[in-house]
Here is the input.
Amino acid sequence: MNKSYLTELRDKAMETGAPPPACDHYDVTVSNETAHSLVLTSRTVAGTFDDPAPGTGHVLHPDASDTFRITSVHYPWESGAATLRYQMAGVPVGFTAVGGPPGSHASSAMVEGHGCEYYACAIEGRRNGDPLIRLIEAWPPG
Here is the structure.
């Protein structure tokens, strides 16, 4: 993160009386527990994805996981969460994972598209509070 940008944000906040932005460092891990590869189609955050972090076009293979190290700069009324969008290879199913800093309650996940009923999401917290977002196979819906 550009230090002069952070200084500029702080100075603007002090001039206007707005609270200064918060800076959070956290990891979001996405686990693919399906038989399909996932292609990362987009990633967004108010801040930066620190290296090494998978970029768009990255393939997350079955039974593997991606970890995104994040530096989030956000105002107190913003979540500071990162949004990660994947598309299943060969299947018209999309997967969106949202992971926020520890204690933010901003983590969520969604599966959409034709056949999405065969998949489910699970969100867990790691020991340090960082989110683990899992995409899993759901057995035939009943």
Notes: The longest helix spans residues 3-16. The beta strands are 22-33, 38-44, 47-50, 59-60, 64-74, 82-88, 93-99, 108-113, 119-125, 131-137.
